[in-house]
Amino acid sequence: xxxxxxxxxxxxxxxxxxxxxxxxxxxxxxxxxxxxxxxxxxxxxxxxxxxxxxxxxxxxxxxxxxxxxxxxxxxxxxxxxxxxxxxxxxxxxxxxxxxxxxxxxxxxxxxxxxxxxxxxxxxxxxxxxxxxxxxxxxxxxxxxxxxxxxxxxxxxxxxxxxxxxxxxxxxxxxxxxxxxxxxxxxxxxxxxxxxxxxxxxxxxxxxxxxxxxxxxxxxxxxxxxxxxxxxxxxxxxxxxxxxxxxxxxxxxxxxxxxxxxxxxxxxxxxxxxxxxxxxxxxxxxxxxxxxxxxxxxxxxxxxxxxxxxxxxxxxxxxxxxxxxxxxxxxxxxxxxxxxxxxxxxxxxxxxxxxxxxxxxxxxxxxxxxxxxxxxxxxxxx
Length: 381
Description:
Layout: E1 2-5, E2 11-14, E3 34-36, E4 42-44, E5 60-69, E6 73-76, H1 77-81, H2 88-95, E7 99-102, H3 109-124, E8 133-137, H4 149-156, E9 162-166, H5 172-186, E10 192-199, E11 217-227, E12 236-239, E13 247-249, H6 253-258, E14 267-269, H7 271-293, E15 302-305, H8 310-320, E16 327-328, H9 332-335, H10 342-352, E17 361-368, E18 372-379
Helix pairs in contact: 3-4, 7-8
């Protein structure tokens, strides 16, 4: 809108066609706090209460590209089995995991996120300078402040983008994706990078029999942009804060700071309790996401749950009664549990080997510490 100056020295806002803005169309305010109407009468006005202009909404959003970064170092089960007095066979039977990746010192949460994001942008055909928002989902970035997302935005060339970290642990990617969808549909953002990046090897105790064999490192990213029709279905999410201790650090940060020389906290998990919760929660969340999107299991091309445990994945797929043509992601076998990075990494793996069709529908379900979960259906790029 342009500002025009009246003969009395006051200003009024006008739209492109020259008409006055809402709130000023009836007349300009007088010093006594009134505005003259078309009929000559006066109405009281209050300064500082003008009508806000909302961003122009769009019909929908969709994933435009997917990228992944996997550390070079492959860690087989035999390497992690020794410190927990276990074996390759036990780990496979318990989790379905054969190997995982561990990051080198220079493969930081930020560096891996930037690499995955650049690959997603290249696939999407979106210039980094066109990105206006960067969302990072991570539970292993060790610096509480400053957040990592602004640095990621800088490294990928989106230097003026809004950027923030989202903390929802293993459900973080689905939460961040829902945030990107809402930002775009509201008109507040246009091109959003959503990235999950984890160095779980930093926060896992290699001698903890409940977690040492489960987790791996890596990053996965998507680029989300506007679409003429919805490409991301409504999110279905929830939490059970009364069960927050089921997956938690071994000590809160204030306690670590109070005890000089204390080792940094590591992840602790009540595996049986989390397994029971996931088996009970994931199918219901998945069905709710399908219902919210107006879909049935047979409409899907892929089921991509958080890669927590192969038994949980297989149990959820069976509970949903997915037809044979629906591909079930099993990236956990070679990547381990990469927390917030697991869903985009699994998506990238399916697309890279041509296991799912472009434009096909995928059901995503994230779940983990909190306890929290989130699910939505997306159209694949």
